[in-house]
Amino acid sequence: MISKLRSANTIFFHLRKTLSLVWAASRYWTVAWMILLLVQGLIPAASISLTPRAINALVSVTGSGISAANVQKVIVPVGLMAGIMLVGEVLNSAAEWIRTAQAELVQDYITGLIQKQSVAVDYGFYECSEYNDKLDRAREGASGRSLALLENTGRLLQNTVTLFAMAAILAPYGFGLPITLVVSAFPAFYVLTYLNKIQYQWSQRTTTDRRWLAYYDYLLTNNATAAEVRLFDYADYFQSSYHNLRRRLRHEQFHLLKLQTLGRFVATIIALIISGGAIAWIGRQVLLGILSLGDLALFFQAFSQGQSIVRDLLNNLGQIYRNSLFLGNLFEFLQIQPKIIDPLNPVPVPSTPKKGIRFRQVTFRYPGSEEPVLNNFNLTLPAGKIVAIVGDNGAGKSTLIKLLCRFYDPQSGSIELDGIDLRNFSVKAFRRLITVLFQSPIPYNTTAGENIGLGDISAASNYSEIQAAAKASGIHDKIDRLPLGYNAMLGKLFPEGTDLSGGQWQRLALARAFFRRAQIIILDEPTSAMDPWAEHDWLERFRTLASDRTAVVITHRFTLAMRADIIHVMRAGQIVESGTHDELLAQSGFYAQSWKDQMESSASAIVTERNSLTK
Ligand SMILES: Nc1ncnc2c1ncn2[C@@H]1O[C@H](COP(=O)(O)OP(=O)(O)OP(=O)(O)O)[C@@H](O)[C@H]1O
């Protein structure tokens, strides 16, 4: 009982939220829709109440020939019925129109809310499967369902109006009839509610499976994976994984479908038996001469329509229940609170860092992980210097970047800028201070100019600065040679787009970084797609960008690291060696050994290449 009350309360809560959501998205359409619903609710009863008059008038003139007097007798009731039918049709068309317009508005509104929330939540959510499930569930027909929920509720009200009108029409024939009408629909209601519940449970249980399906589909149909899928002949492998999973889900769906069909069939048979009994009773009354033929027609219409209305009404209740369950997912998603938030009174961010950044006794483990990646970790990134961090795979270098960008906060210890804990700054204001050049920068499918302008959207119309940034990063000549120059579309997703090479995209990202003019520059393997000559040229340009700024370079390339002012060697979450290139070589430690290995392998690669050329 308590759980039933709780679920009714939840439905009411979701209904209220949905109503305010639809109201916010399309208030005028909603008012028009409500008025229309009420009027539509009265149409069937009005039509039925005219039936005995029309039938009795027709019976009275049956067989007495066509004459003006006869036509006069039937024209008014029949004409009224026709008029009501016409009004009903007009209202139906108007309702369809309103529904379509409302659906568009609500869809845009809810999509906007989901997008806003997707950006507001912490970056860490995207590294968590549970969050991805939540996002998928929220998206799952959210806009369609909110309107459906409202429509179900509207139809529930409309059907209630119609049902009361029908009951008023049937009551003179005995109060048992309206009661029989309602009782006959109970089996259908029970079946529908039960089926809606198991359908919802199935949907919740298979969210991750359906994300797997979307993932396999992505692997098979996306341009980012197209090359590897062909080269390594993955297609059959992924396709069979897709089909196996689909087969299982399809079987489960078929099973549900079987249950639904069987349940509906049994419920319909029960309803038919009940209405058969009621019709037999009224037929008896007609045979006994207690009721007229017109009464029989009215009863038949009112009872069969009433029955379908009650079924519809209970169906609406079932749908309300189901849609409110699904919409619960949307509301749950919209309620997720980010953990990385601004403090109550943010401290102003220094426009130019004086001392630099310091990791002080930082301990950090990823949510859900037992092992900390960083344990009492200390590191200083002095202002105005280029610091390189080298280390083996999994040492924790990218984790440092995530902490520095405040994608995560440490569990203990602090990260400070000029002695102030980063948590004291506004997140946005602090991030404005940073630019990150990722190993694989995003190839934005937009114009070359906009690709650079994205570095600082507030100044994106400053064409000369965009050009200066492109020149400084060494991508200007390439852009200049494109037929539309800075207005040329980049990427291959849209018509007339030109693709760039990996190294050229990296240069474009550098131009974006120049354009951003941020004080702290973070680079994660920024030259991985460049040849040694391009890397050398790029480094010179980077030095220009980084002059007087604080830069952190994360790299496996010693030729890049050696140009930094300070090099830190990181292993298993700890800094194990620090110094300039020469100092580290002199220490004969991990750095010196790795440097030797890398130089030897480069030298042997050159020898092999030279030998193969001379053969
Ligand atoms: N989102 C995450 N959730 C849980 N553990 C993670 C996550 N990201 C990274 N790790 C773990 O944290 C450790 C450090 O990873 P990190 O990516 O920082 O290493 P890295 O030094 O950048 O490595 P590489 O040179 O290979 O890029 C690894 O053991 C990794 O498995």
Automatic annotation (TrEMBL):
Keyword set includes ATP-binding: yes
GO MF term set: ATP binding
Compartments where found: Cell membrane
InterPro entries in alphabetical order: AAA+_ATPase, ABC1_TM_dom, ABC1_TM_sf, ABC_transporter-like_ATP-bd, ABC_transporter-like_CS, P-loop_NTPase, Type_1_exporter
All copies of domain ABC transmembrane type-1, residue ranges: 34-322
Coiled-coil region(s): none
Keyword annotations: ATP-binding, Membrane, Nucleotide-binding, Transmembrane, Transmembrane helix
Membrane topology (UniProt): Multi-pass membrane protein
Domain ABC transporter: 357-597
Transmembrane segments: 21-43, 163-195, 256-280
Signal peptide region: none
UniProt keyword Transmembrane, yes or no: yes
Main location: membrane
Protein name: ABC transporter ATP-binding protein/permease
Species this chain originates from: Plectonema radiosum NIES-515
